[in-house]
Structure formats: C-alpha cells, structure tokens
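[audit] Reproducing an earlier prediction to check determinism. Same input, same settings, fresh worker. If the tokens differ from the archived copy the diff job will pick it up downstream; this log only records the rerun itself.
[audit] input (827 residues):
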Amino acid sequence: RFGQPVPESRTARQVEEALSAAASLGYPVVVRPAFTLGGTGGGIAENPDALAAIAARGLLSSPIGQVLVERCVLGWKEIEYEVMRDAAGTCITVCNMENVDPMGVHTGDSIVVAPSQTLTDREYQLLRTAALRIIDGLGIAGGCNIQFALDPDSDAYYVIEVNPRVSRSSALASKATGYPIARVAAKIAIGLRLDEILNRVTGVTRAAFEPALDYVVVKIPRWPFDKFPTMERGLGTQMKATGEVMAIGRTFEQALLKAVRSLDLKLDSLRHPEAARWSASDLEHLVTEPTDLRLFAVAEALRRGWLVDRLALRSQIDRFFIGKIARIVNVESRLASGTANLAEAKRTGFSDVAIAALVGESEGAVRARRRDGGVRPVFKIVDTCAGEFPAQTPYYYSTYEDEDERPEFRKPRIVVLGSGPIRIGQGIEFDYSTVHAVKALREAGYEAVVINNNPETVSTDFDISDRLYFEPLTLEEVLNVCEREQPLGVLAQYGGQTAINLAGPLLAAGVRILGTPVASLDISEDRRKFDALLADLGIERPQGGGVRSLEEARALVRQIGLPVLVRPSYVLGGRGMEIVDDEDAAIAAVRSALAADSTYPVLIDRYIAGLEIEVAAITDGESVLIPGVMEHIEAAGVHSGDSIAVFPAQSLPEGIEERLVGMTVQIARALGVRGFINLQCVFDGTRVYVLEANLRASRTVPFVSKAVGVPLVQLGTRVMIGDSLADLGYPGVHRLPRPPRVAVKAPVFSMEKLSSADAAVGPEMKSTGEVMGLGADAPAALRRALLAAGLQVRGDRVLVSLAARDRERARPVLETFQRLGFRLVAT
C-alpha cells in the first residue's frame, strides 16, 4: 500500500497451516505469534519438525490463536527508527539505532548502538524516508518504532515490524537522545503540534527539532544466566533478557566497555573469566552461535589470532564492530607489554580495575598514578542538539577529553546510588525507592544527584533529579562523580546490593555514607559478628556459621545437623543459595559458592521448616517506626521474592507480633541503624528465629508503603539526612494502625521465556516481577493478586510432588482439592 517491501509471509491458525506456509516459503522461517510482546512463543524453524513444535507453542501464546510464518532474513542488518508525527502531518526522526547482532536475535536480546555506525548516507536516508512514509501513511499521531532488515551487500531492505506506540526501544531512544518520546506523544494525543511543544532540555528549541548526537550510546541486555547456569544460552527471536544497561561515550569502544562494566557481573573488560578454558571448538561455536558470551568470544578469538574477515564471516557481525573490538584487544595487549599509556587506555574506555589487572598493580595504585599524571575524566552534557544550544537540564556522561561542561552548584548536594539493570533479585522496586528518595531530598532543600545506568527506569529520566550521571555503578565512576560534585554524602540504602556493596569502599576513599554506619552493615552481613550480637541480645537464630574451606564446612554440617541452608555472603535475590539434605550435597554447594567468590565466608545454617515472617521498619537510632508484619504463604526455604506475602499477617498466634517488634527494636538500636531495617524470621510453631537482617530498603518497601498509605521512603530519607522520627511525628516505638484492608504481593515468573530453566521455587529467587492485590480479606486480595499475575488454572488435575517429610502436612490441602473436584496426580 505504501510501496514498502515486507518479507513474504502467511498467517496460520493451525500447525498444519504453518507447515503448508513454510513449504511454500522455503526454510528457514520465522514464527511470530500475534499480539504478543518480547517474541513470546516464537522462534526460527530450520525444518518441519522444529516448525511444528514452535507453531504449536506460538498458537497457545497468541491471545487470538494466530501465528505469522515469515521468510527468514538471517544475517541481514537490523536497523530501528524512532519516529514522531503530529495530527498536522509533521514527521521527524528522533533516533536511529543499529543492532550489533544481525537479524535472527530479538532486538531486546541484541547489543544496540545509537546512532547507527555502519550505514552509508544513502542507506541512512533510504530507511529514514521509508520510516517517515510509513508513519505518515498510517496516520499515526504520536510515536512509532519501525524495524528494518537491510541486506549488507545491497540496498535491499524489508520492513520487519511497525509498533504504533511507545515500545521498549522508545525508552532507550529517549535516554540516548534526551528527547522525551512518551511526554511528546502524550501532548500530541491532546492536540498539540510538534512545533508547539517546548524541548525541556534546551528550553529554546521545539519538539519538531530533530535530535543530534555528538556521542555514541551502547545498550547491552542483562540476561538471567547467572541465576540459571544450566539454562540453554542460545539467543533467538524470543527475548530472554530481564533488563538492560546503557552507556554513553565519545567512541563506540568507550561506550561498549562502560556498558560491560554496568552489567554488574564482575566484568571489567572484554576478558571473560572463562575464556582461557574455551577450546578451539568451543570458541568456534561461541563466535558462530548467538549467546550472551559472543561479544567476549569475538574478543578472545582476536587474541588468538583470528582475522577480522574470518570473524565477520562466522558471526555475520559487521566488520566495523569487529574492528572496534580488535582495537580494544590491541590496547589490552600493549598495556600488558607496557607500550600503551594511561591516557590512551582511558580514552579507549578501560577502567582502572582492568588496567590494574593488565599491568600487575592495584586499582588504587593505577588511580593514583593516573591522577598524578593529570589523566582525569571530564563530563559532557546530553543536550539533544550536539552543543548547538545550551542545555537547561544537566544530564551527564564521563569521557577523557579536555573540555569539562561543569554544572552550576546552587545548594548542598547529596548523591543517590541507583540499582543498575533490572535482573532477578534486584528489580524495579529499588528504582521506586531511588525516585522517592530524590523527591524527599529536593523537598528538604538539597540538590539530588543520581548515578545510574538503566534506560528503563524512572530515575534516569532527565527531569527527576537535579543532575543525572549515566555511569557504571563502580567505585571508580562513583568516586569521579563525588570528586566533581563534592556532596554532603551518599545514600546507598536504595540501590539494592549493588549500592550497599559500594558503601565500604566509598567510605575508605573518604566519601561520607549517610544513614546506617558502614560498620553496622558489615556486622549484619558477617555471620560470626551477627551471631555474637544476637547472642548478646538474647535473640535466637538457627544454628550455623561461616566457613572458608570444605573441611570447615564438613565439620560445621556434622555439628549442626541436616538439613542445612548454604548461601554466599553479600548477595541479593538468594543467588547461590541451596537447601540440602545430605552431607555430600552440602559440600558440593559450598565448593560451588567458594569457586564463585572466595572473598567472604560461605554461610551454613540449620534449615528450620516453618512460617516465614518479615518486618520492615525505619529507625533514627532511637525511635522506631513499624509499619507492620507480613507473613509468607510458602514455608521458609522459598525465597521471599518468590513467596506470596500477606500484609498484615493473618495467622500469627497472640504475642508473636509483639515479640517480632521487640526483636526489631533491639537489633536496630544495637546496630545504630539510621534508615531502613528489614528483619526476616521463621516461626516453627513455638519459637521465633531470626534468619537475617538487611540494613537497607528492601524490595518489599514499595508494597508495604502502598499497603499502609504512608510514604516510607520519604520518611527514611529524612531520617538518613539527620531528622528524627519524633520531629516527623513518630516518637518512640511507633506501630502504624492495622490497615482496614488486606494486601497480597504475588510473584510473576517468566518461565515460558526461560523454558529450559528449572521452574521449582526454592531459596534462590527466580521471579522477574511482582503484583499487588487489595481486598477486604486475605482470600479476596489473594484472588486479585493471582489474577494480576496472569495465573490461569486450566483443567481439573493437580500434580503432587512431595518430599517424604512433607506428606502428612500436605494431607489437609490435598483433601481440600479433592472436595473441590480436582483429581490428584502424584509422582
């Protein structure tokens, strides 16, 4: 209709129709289920057997039972354009982006660069013109994302997808350019023209002014393979990433290395810790097949002497990108041999940690040598106009050049550390806390400075904080910002484990940490110190201890008895936790934890089955505000993030809540907590045992805050910056009134996207999100929460798989299912 080429395709409502379509089109084919997001249920089929399986899955995933069977263009370049149009017909291109990975990998699982790097001007204008014709022809008023496949050897292209709405890529494009796509689309929806909408970044130009970039942006997805080490890592048309990071630099190399550091996977360069163990055949496979490791495999292949042309042929990644990776590897090699200087390494994007590893020095020594040599970062503004107009909204990234675009300081400043990419165990709940902390600081008369690297979050919107630094959350980058801002202090309680892990090193570097003393954070995470504290306070906890060797582990397991819970120190989301019933399994779990990180002891606790309960509180060191107590429906041993939580608790015997409150107050005062404390306990029917105390805002803070209708983050922030709870209206031990309604938090899982992962829940968190249901009573709230989580009970059978120790306890539940008409199927 608009003269735009699309791949030949057929729709199908049955598997047989899909097979017939593929026979006509020829293999391979792409299967795209209708009305789904993230490629749910889709895939690439190389033969009829694969197509039958993918089509059956896709038809179930589609809400209208339809799939599109499409000719496959594997290996072509994937290019995206974000375009805007108003009702008057004015159209602009906001941003174009290029996937480093070729067609065949979902764009949400692809490394993406903006602006495009490998297009000729002719190709760029060809696709831009096509995008503008499409949005105009469709009559869209607002934003639109258009994806193209471009033949790398000719001007041939196909329109792959048109999203007439704000998409996942729109968020990336907004953060990459500083152009607020959703905001402008909303104003267009109420009738404004693009030339009537002011660009709030410059305060001078209008929304009809196309953004210009004088920097490079790189997005890398954050996959959950660290949570599911046995999961199939191949990437295709069905998205597997749970989040993403974005980095800004003056060159592709600089932005790429900053993005790798931002992943929070203990990766400081393109040298993957497993690379030395990859055989030649392993490397060939990792280069050829798209996985999360391909970027590192390309770098390793270059180290082993592969030529750029060979890599481009095997991976189908453009030679331009492989050449840039080759330059990084070249600087790596010259650093190790002493022929590259610090200035060149920093301009390329290397961190102090990466340089230290290559030259055999400590990070501190490299930092000192760099600073003594005058090699310091400058900060540039993201201004939407490549410096043509002055920016009114400071939104910064670091680089190594000469000119520093310094901000104007008006008030005392406080830095808030964000939580980085969304991943299992550390999700959007922490960004909620970050944003509300910023709001509280600004209301209290401070300038709030945010450091974060997640383009999907509200905290990285340019108008949330007084200054935004889009930087990796590493010691080096945070210190660089603090050196520039000279803040009164840093808030580390809202960024999850990422921020908490930086508190000690920042303090050691002379940065003031606001809120709870860092020494207290260490006590709460150090098993021996925390056990000693609880013993002094007369508070029980499961028997256990910390071990640093397999011999210590075996002795401790024999001392406390089985079953035991094995877990690493300083982790979030239960990473690496296991409940084991025999000694050999316990030793294997400890061996795995020590291999992953031997810096801190591995914790072993006697596992106690019972009701898990949780208390969230705010304290100024003396007064304590208790919003309430929540209980988990699942027994202790299932991670709290994967448990259904009920607030307020419904089934605790009389006196237990008072005991919990008393324990919380004791621990908070003993540790001098200033801010949040989250206490997790287990009740075995007789006694309450403390499992752990988290001295930070936990993932349940947004849930509890909404359940009680009190802005807990604002209160916690005011306490951290020096206000007392008494001054804020909550003197002494203050328990909020029991709310008139019940709230239920239910986890949301993505197992349909992670099909090869074990779906059984346990001490390691697996859910990717959560929902909240409110009701007059617990059953009503639970029903709403489960419906919101997308739980649909199909059929009349229940699969029962129980350990021998749980069978008698489960009998009443199973009898209830039988009375309701369900058939029981047992393993």
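[audit] rerun output stored. Observation attached for the diff report: The domain at 9-71 is CATH 3.30.1490.20 (Dna Ligase; domain 1).
[audit] end
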